[in-house]
Write a structure and sequence with these properties.
Helix content of chain A: 40-55%
CATH architecture of the largest domain in chain A: Sandwich
CATH class of the largest domain in chain A: Mainly Beta
Strand content of chain A: 25-35%
Order of helices and strands of chain A: HHEEEEEHHHEEHHEEH
Oligomer: homodimer
Distance between the termini of chain A: 49 Å
Shape of chain A: globular
CATH topology of the largest domain in chain A: Jelly Rolls
Number of domains of chain A: 2
Radius of gyration of chain A: 19 Å
Number of helices of chain A: 8
Structural class of chain A: alpha+beta
Chain lengths: 233, 233
DNA sequence: GAAGGTCCTTGATCGAAATCAATGCGCCGC
DNA sequence: GCGGCGCATTGATTTCGATCAAGGACCTTC
């Protein structure tokens, strides 16, 4: 459990320019607030404003809500990442904890107003937005044109890159999210996700240990199963 | 047909700050090139670099390509809009003309390098990225969790807002894109798109004239059919 | 370490959209 | 005005993933 100044210091180190004056840093700090969010809880936000949220610890999902509790996980966000949580428009969005998480919350408008003449901060925000846009476009392709197996394979490749680690010589992931979260992210049902885990397991592309553990013996092979473009095409 | 300086002037008026010095404007101008792209042609780009493209005239689609010619239209872009076209990664992207289009092309890296200390230009880029991210997230929700009818209704609402106009008292759209483009944007087939047009027509939510003309007598009703959140929820 | 609950897996059936297959319409040149 | 062609519509059938329905595994709690 971090104190607010510790959290902010971490945020500043990653997302604010190194040469910022102490006074300027304090002005940004004054705009932030800390929030601890328990598992499966949503971060409480003013629905009518955009927010900028820094993930200090845990793991989170950004969820878009349509009518009839049909939810779509629009993205997962892990420690040290910055997320833009949009205000309610055609649909509403919530940032929810997949694991107990410590978050740093800013009003988007206040933050950009303070950063309006600081190129380094603006560049940092732009990079954050570009990363999210790029992942979101990849997701559109997956949701629009890929089969269930390809979607799960692509998801696992992306997770391996973002939160995977080497364990006794094999690329491994400890998935923080439930099958429901994965299903809501891939536009599938939990049953279909479960079946695709079985398919990939039978193809020898992965091994599972318990609910959360996944070992990937051959990342390239899994990428191929995800329908990624090869050198040739 | 615009000359390159005319095109650039238009771009500068919309996306560059008004108080930029003439010298600075010329430096940006030196980075751009004009490109005319015919119907269904792709803009020729260096595949290994990101680009920034300004649409001067016409209508364009940003297409993500997976294996087996399964294409996903990731977004449509109309005159005065700025598009980020990503370099090839897991998938490749092309910007293609839906109608003959005049485009202004920049290398993304060069452009941001020149803008690196100019907050106003950076803010303009950030706003562009945020707009695209927001539309992309809405698309993820539609592709992941909505029915064919809801997707088409949502698409038509969005087009009405972006390129619709009032004609003899009724909100009307002259769709620049084919059924195939719409299908590739909504993650459906052309046959299904066609059937959903019939469904919405039979529901009295729209009238069609020829292939491209759409009249929307009641936008609110169409929005409701798109599964948008209502005030209550 | 047994009990209980939650989450996950597997199986059987159903349904929305894809695919396959004609047919129709609008738009072009002639 | 009349073909002809490309695009769009409509119909018949198939398919992949959703839904419905049991089991089974893992983790917590006592």
């Amino acid at each position: 459990m971090m104190t607010f100044p510790e959290q902010f210091e971490r945020f500043a180190r990653i997302h604010l320019p190194a040469n910022l004056s102490d006074a300027a840093i304090l002005r940004f700090q004054a705009l932030g607030r800390a929030a601890a969010v328990g598992r499966e809880e949503a971060l409480a936000l003013n629905l009518h404003a955009d927010h900028l949220v820094f993930v200090c610890s845990g793991a989170t999902k950004l969820v878009a809500h349509a009518s009839d509790r049909r939810d779509q996980v629009v993205g997962f966000h892990f420690p040290d990442e910055l997320v833009v949580v949009p205000a309610r428009a055609e649909h509403s969005y919530t940032l929810e904890a997949v694991r107990p998480s410590e978050l740093l919350v800013f009003d988007y408008r206040d933050f950009t107003e303070l950063a309006r003449s600081d190129p380094a901060v603006l560049r940092s925000l732009l990079e954050c937005a570009r990363g999210s846009l790029s992942r979101s476009r990849e997701k559109s392709l997956a949701l629009g044109r890929k089969t269930a197996t390809e979607r799960l394979a692509g998801f696992l490749v992306a997770m391996a890159v973002r939160i995977g680690s080497m364990r006794d010589g094999t690329l491994s992931i400890d998935l923080p999210m439930s099958r429901r979260d994965i299903a809501d992210s891939l536009g599938l049902t939990i049953e279909t996700v479960s079946r695709q885990f079985s398919v990939l397991r039978e193809l020898g592309l992965l091994e599972t240990t318990g609910k959360a553990g996944v070992r990937i013996p051959d990342l390239r092979a899994l990428e191929a199963r995800a329908g990624y473009l090869t050198e040739a095409a």
